[in-house]
Every structure is written in C-alpha cells, then in structure tokens.
Amino acid sequence: QKKIIIIAEACDNHFGSLRNAKQMATKAKQAGADAIKMQTYTADTLTIDSDLPDFNLTEGLWAGKTLYQLYQEAYTPWDWHKPLFDYARKIGITCLSTPFDETAVDLLENLNVPAYKLASFEATDLPLIKYIASTKKPLIMSTGMADLEEIEEMVETAREAGCKELVVLHCLSSYPAPIEQSNLLTIPDLSKKLGVQVGLSDHTVTNTASIVAASLGASVIEKHFILNRNDKGPDSEFSIEP
Question: 53-66: per-residue pLDDT in tens?
C-alpha cells in the first residue's frame, strides 16, 4: 500500500498574523498532514494596481475587489518565510510553497525548500516551469486552468528542464468547487496518458472527493486549511478545519 501525501494549503488563512501561520503548521502536523504549503508572491509580482474592468472581480467570493486588493490582503510577507520554514522543521512537518515568479523561486531556493508547487493559474507560464524544474527539486503541478494539450506541454517542459520527480494534480479552479463536477476519473486517465503520478487539489467543502480520489490512485491530496472557518477571509468558505 503506497503512502498518500496530504498537503494542508495554508494560503492566506493566517489573516496577516505570523503567530497564526505557525499555529496552522502545528495543527496541520497534529491532524496528520505531511506538509503545510504557502504561496510566495506580492500584489506587485502578480498584477498592477488598476481598477479597469479586466482587473475587477465581479462574481464569486471575491466580488467587489480588484485583483490588486485581493492579493494585498492575501499574501504571505516574504520576511515571514524563514521563520515559518525554521518552525516547520523544528516541529517536524514539511513546508512547501507556490512561487509565482522567478524572484519567488530564488527566495525559496535560499531557504532550501524541499519541493515546489505550481498553481494552475501559471500552467501556461513555461519559462517559470523551466526555472522551477532547473532546481531539480520535486514539482507538483495543478491543472485546473489547463486543457490536455497544455497539461502535456507543462509535463514536457518540466521534464526537459531537468525535473525527475513530477506529480500532476487534477483540479477544479472553482472556489468552492461543486462536488458534482469533480470528474475524478480524470485521475487514472491523466496517469495513463502522461505516465506520471497524479493527485487531487480539492476545492470542494467536504472530504468526499479526496477519499474517492485516493481510491482511484491519487498519490497527493491537497486541501485548503484553516484553524477556524468562522474567521472569515478570502479562502475560509472552502477550507477545512483540523
């Protein structure tokens, strides 16, 4: 029986508190997660401060904000990364992150991150995939924003740039994701087509999809994680508690 890696996606659920972020690592470890994951970006590395229509969110959980406002609220300050990585090592949980540009990769390399996660929003950023893969670290790639041709291109790019340990995550880029759209048979299908390990980045509000994914051969399960869902924030509606 193979080990299934469980990743607790902390994202912005620290609510701007380093103490909360450390507490999340502790609770994830106690709950049995193998890793706690952050995201490494700033509003300025992701977008521009504009309120033109293309930069305004009009639907879903984040309606009424500009992209810049959302990312400013959600980001993990870069000077938190070292204390968080040090704390995770101290308590015995793996700490990972998702970089969104090359400067974020450089920061994470300086902290000796053991593996990388690529967000599905960056699925077509082939230069970034090459840059991450050139570190020769394991790479986990989400696919929610990509079609099959783009997923094949992601995998080929990572392999050609030197990535030997690769996992592709089936993912719905809906927040929260409707469970009836899960289409979990994509997991064995992608594994067969791509010749890689496949897992699930699960944005549904229960654990049912994750459990079924495990039965279909998923090797990695990622779930958004929060200390208390009553603490309202950008990701609280689709995050699970310890």
Answer: 888 877 766 677 78
